[in-house]
């Protein structure tokens, strides 16, 4: 890698002035005195280093992405007068977390996006140190209101609101923050440095209600606040939900799902035909989990179903790079849509072992900008292709025990050239190439069929969680029934590849256990990348001998939906050779039991308008 300053595209003098200015602003505003308490990796010396040359190779073609710089959580998704709005946490000045504003994009189809000016940015005493995550609520008269977390000069976290400045502007370009903010200030018994991310409000029993993430020591807490007029809010005495040993809850999302069918339902809906879902994002693990349960709107109590794990090992919307997700009800199409940040942050422990700690532990004072920033920046910036996952329609599985999601139908408008395979038998060790599409940017749907369930390997419950099994039993470790699946972003010699595959086991109780893995470990051989093997179990009946997989491949994203969207895994990968036309796609089987690719359809995917110019 070229570590010279020139390759940053940043003239030295301009860099020096920009850095000095940024450091001065950060010193004055106290950034170095009070640490930010969301565990995004903090690189003060890089927060204002603008990227002039964006590496194209790993940029996505159809995932939501700004033209450059850092992005994190999706904020306030909503539909207003037929136009979709997505706000997101964004650093307009650099490619690492910092200087966060609410960037704003609009779309008519959830696929093609146009960038507008940032909607909310630090400017008032109640948000001068940051405009952090939040949600949009559409009031009964159709007006949208944003609830977001602001940080004041002392980094106290509080909840504010913003409203459109001009309701006649269909794009709602400008937002104002009335002077009666903050709406909710943390009381003395609340942890003021962990009090954030208000959810979309819902209305029941004569009150508006919203939930906010927090913690007390290591106990995760979701607080509920109520208001009659959306202006004066009071905390409900009991925590809405609290779980020991989870660490901080971020970005809580609370919403109803219909007991039957795939339609969505308004966030305020209650009644016999609905269940409720509470999702929290775990600051410590950078993963999320959710429970399904019963909500009593009169007592404002939420009781998760007893059969579900309520903690780090709980059900996940996505078992890969996916964080700070948020849903909204798309009233025009009657569906609930899920957005997630395809993050690359990982735990502190992993940071230490994967060798990036050298970058993180440098302080700005000891940092020799001109001798070190380029290496640090460039090695980091290979990971600067942050994006949001494809928006997904979400509903409750027919068994009522988990959620199911599927890419919004509109994404299919990007499908181009199509190829198909039918009834291709793959014996142990065989693979077949899917030729005739752009394998680096593709949509693949495949149904695998198998007739001999007796070859399923014995399942040992001591193996631990799914991702650990995926790490131990790779795509190349021979098995009985599986591993079989797709080799994505592969070089022709399999030097680089990202396999997405199933393995089927049999437990002592004779039940089959299905594992879906997405393994980034051989996606590239660059030394300093975070390349985990992700995995999730798939709760599906395979007695009919079939398993389906859909994978959206987008240069540096491999987003997979197992068994019709029951288990989803997003991997971020950075191949060095399996890029553009050098990327290949294969179906493979490394199990002793033959499997059949009953039907595989694959499409080249066109580029979407991803905030680069574009009209809507
Ligand atoms: N990111 C925001 C916080 C939120 C965290 C800050 C989650 O509001 O808790 O950028 O990624």
From TrEMBL:
Gene3D superfamilies for this protein: Exo-inulinase, domain 1, Glycosyl hydrolase domain, family 43
InterPro entries: ConA-like_dom_sf, Fructan_Metab_Enzymes, Glyco_hydro_32, Glyco_hydro_32_AS, Glyco_hydro_32_C, Glyco_hydro_32_N, Glyco_hydro_beta-prop_sf
Coiled coil region boundaries: none
Glycosyl hydrolase family 32 N-terminal domain boundaries: 63-360
Annotated signal peptide: 1-38
GO biological process terms held by the UniProt record: carbohydrate metabolic process
PANTHER family according to UniProt: BETA-FRUCTOFURANOSIDASE, INSOLUBLE ISOENZYME CWINV1-RELATED
Designated name of the protein: Beta-fructofuranosidase
Organism, as annotated: Trapa natans
Taxonomic classification: Eukaryota, Viridiplantae, Streptophyta, Embryophyta, Tracheophyta
């Amino acid at each position: 890698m070229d570590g010279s300053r020139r390759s940053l595209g940043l003239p030295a003098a301009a860099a020096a002035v920009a850095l000095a200015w940024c450091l001065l602003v950060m010193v004055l505003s106290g950034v170095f005195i009070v640490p930010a308490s969301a565990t995004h990796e903090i690189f003060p010396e890089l927060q204002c280093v603008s990227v002039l040359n964006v590496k194209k190779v790993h940029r996505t073609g159809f995932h939501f992405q700004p033209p450059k710089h850092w992005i994190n959580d999706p904020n306030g998704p909503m539909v207003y007068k037929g136009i979709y709005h997505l706000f997101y946490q964004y650093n307009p000045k650099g490619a690492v977390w910092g200087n966060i504003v609410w960037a704003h994009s609009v779309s008519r189809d959830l696929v093609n996006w146009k960038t507008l000016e940032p909607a909310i940015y630090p400017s008032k005493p109640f948000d001068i140190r940051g405009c952090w995550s939040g949600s949009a609520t559409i009031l009964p008269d159709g007006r949208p209101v944003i609830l977001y977390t602001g940080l004041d000069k002392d980094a106290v976290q509080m909840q504010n609101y913003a409203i459109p400045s001009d309701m006649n502007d269909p794009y709602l370009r400008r937002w104002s923050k009335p002077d009666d903010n903050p709406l909710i200030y943390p009381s003395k018994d609340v942890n003021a440095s962990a009090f954030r991310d208000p959810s979309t409000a819902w209305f029941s029993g004569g009150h508006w209600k919203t939930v906010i993430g927090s913690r007390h020591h290591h106990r995760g807490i979701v607080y509920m606040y109520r208001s009659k007029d959306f202006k004066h809010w009071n905390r409900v005495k009991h925590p809405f939900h609290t779980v020991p040993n989870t660490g901080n809850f971020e970005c809580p999302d609370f919403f109803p799902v219909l007991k039957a069918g795939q339609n969505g339902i308004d966030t305020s809906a209650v009644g016999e035909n609905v269940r409720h879902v509470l999702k929290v994002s775990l600051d410590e693990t950078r993963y999320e989990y959710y429970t399904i349960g019963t909500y009593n709107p009169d007592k404002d109590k939420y009781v998760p179903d007893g059969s579900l794990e309520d903690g780090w090992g709980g059900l996940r919307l996505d078992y890969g790079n996916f964080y700070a997700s948020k849903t909204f009800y798309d009233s025009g199409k009657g569906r609930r849509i899920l957005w997630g940040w395809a993050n690359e942050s990982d735990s502190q422990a992993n940071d230490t072992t994967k060798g990036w700690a050298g970058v993180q532990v440098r302080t700005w004072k000891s940092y020799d900008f001109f001798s070190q920033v380029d290496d640090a920046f460039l090695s980091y910036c290979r990971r600067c292709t942050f994006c949001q996952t494809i928006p997904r329609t979400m509903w409750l599985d027919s068994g009522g025990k988990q959620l199911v999601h599927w890419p919004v139908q509109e994404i299919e408008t990007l499908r181009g050239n199509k190829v198909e395979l039918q009834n291709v038998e793959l014996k142990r060790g065989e693979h077949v190439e899917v030729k005739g599409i752009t394998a680096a940017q593709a949509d693949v749907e495949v149904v695998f069929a198998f007739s001999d369930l007796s070859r399923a390997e014995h399942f040992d419950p001591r193996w631990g969680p799914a991702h650990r099994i995926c790490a131990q039993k790779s795509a190349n470790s021979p098995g009985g029934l599986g591993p079989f699946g797709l080799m994505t972003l592969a070089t022709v010699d399999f030097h680089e590849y990202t396999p997405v595959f199933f393995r089927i086991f049999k437990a002592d109780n004779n039940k089959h256990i299905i594992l879906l893995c997405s393994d980034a470990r051989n996606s590239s051989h660059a030394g300093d990348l975070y390349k985990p093997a992700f995995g999730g179990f798939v709760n599906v009946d395979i007695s009919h001998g079939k398993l389906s997989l859909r994978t959206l491949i987008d240069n540096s994203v491999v987003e997979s939906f197992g068994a019709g969207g029951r288990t989803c895994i997003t991997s971020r990968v950075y191949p060095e050779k399996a890029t553009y036309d050098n990327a290949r796609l294969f179906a493979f089987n490394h199990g002793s039991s033959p499997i059949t690719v009953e039907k595989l359809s694959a499409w080249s995917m066109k580029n979407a308008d991803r905030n680069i110019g574009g009209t809507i």
